[in-house]
Amino acid sequence: MEKNSFLLLALFLILSCMVVPSEGKKQTQALGHLYKSKMKGNSGISKSLFKAIHHINKTRIHPQEGMKEKELKSCLDNLMSNFHSPGCSSLAYGAMEELGPFRVHSNGKTLYRNRYSWNYAANVLFLESPAGVGFSYSNTTSDYDESGDSKTAADNYVFLLNWFGRFPEYKGRDFISLIGNAVINDETDVKGMYDYFESHAPISDKTAYRIQKYSSDIIREWGESPSTIIPLLRELMANGLRVWIFSGDTDGRIPVTSTKYSINKMKLPVKTKWHPWYLDGEVGGYTQVYKGDLTFATVRGAGHQVPSFQPKRALTLIKHFIAGTPLPDTSKYI
247: helix, coil or strand? Predict the structure, then answer.
């Protein structure tokens, strides 16, 4: 298996996994081809949403001798004593509330095993990013005022170089980045959110009408980011990479309406029409597959943090994604 790396900014959840050999090899080769194409100046591939990093300041790559043993010895204590971090922390939210190997008892003092942890499907690495989120920090104050996609991408790349230096046995594994309940396209995401509010009654028809008529500006605090990732999704698909987008069907923050509007904007031909997928004889959600290898799946009864609301259904979804197999079809249960 080729040793290629790929970075896609998406909640910074990075899955290091051993997948079905043929599917894994195919995806690894596709990732490697895409990255090498990006590095060529005359590739013809758009670099507007992703800039290949050619040079990294060597002072930021630190010696890793002896650090692996020290890290493994202390990581359990750090994990158990630091789960109370506020904000959008990968550890506090991702690991401790959604898909990590442990959950927190209601007393806030002890842990129990998560039977549906995603590490049953892959080795999961949680990265606190950008600097200042969760337990991450910077000793340069200005870093907190200059956050943006490009800077965060460079920081994450440096992190991965250092991490692979400390744990080289993972270099040969496939790496997959996954977005759940995804922000895709600002215009359609915002419209879909207010349409969801209107249809589920948090706001009146009159309020919804006024919002749609007068609200056109999106308030931003993030330094720089594209208003859409649709060109990036198209680029991934054009280079043979599977794209799965999933959405909890009771999520009000980035609701299923937003995701459907954004996907529809891509005007993709349908490969497998809309149908329910099943788990344990019950509807787990609904799915549709588009030509170009984009799969959209909903998770029934799940809110914004899908694995928190429906852990078993979320684990089933990620297993099928990693294996490159479709979600169970209706016909098996009729």
Answer: strand
**3-class DSSP state of 128:** coil
Segment 113-164, tens digit of pLDDT: 999 999 888 888 888 888 888 888 888 888 888 777 778 878 888 888 888 8
Is residue 167 packed enough to be buried (19+ CB in 10 Å), middle (13-18) or exposed (0-12)?
A: middle
Q: What size, in residues, is the chain?
A: 334
What would the pLDDT profile of 159-196 be if each residue is shown by its tens digit? 888 888 888 887 777 666 676 777 899 889 989 999 99
Residue 44: other Cβ atoms inside 10 A: 7
Q: How far apart are the first and last CA of the chain?
A: 40
- Quick one: tokens of 38? 């990006």
* Residue 310 scores a pLDDT above 60: yes
How many angstroms separate the CA atoms of 65 and 62, rounded? 9
Secondary structure letter of residue 331 according to DSSP = G
Residue 32 has pLDDT above 90, yes or no: no
Give the span between the Cα atoms of 185 and 174, in whole angstroms. Answer: 28
Q: 289-324: b or e for each residue (b if 16 or more CB lie within 10 Å)?
A: bbebebbbbbbbbbbbbbbbbbbebbbbbbebbbeb
CA nearest to 36, candidates 16, 14, 66, 6: 6
Residues contacting residue 6 through CB under 8 Å, at least 6 positions apart: 31, 32, 34, 35, 175, 177
- In degrees rounded to 5, what are phi and psi of residue 3? -105, 90
Q: What pTM, to 2 d.p., does this model score?
A: 0.76
Give SS3 for 123: strand
144: which residues sit within 8 A by CB, 6+ positions away? 131, 132, 138
> CA-to-CA distance for 166 and 178, rounded, in angstroms?
24
Residue written as tokens 């009000």? 252
Contacts 24+ apart (CB under 8 A), 42-46: 45/235, 46/231, 46/235
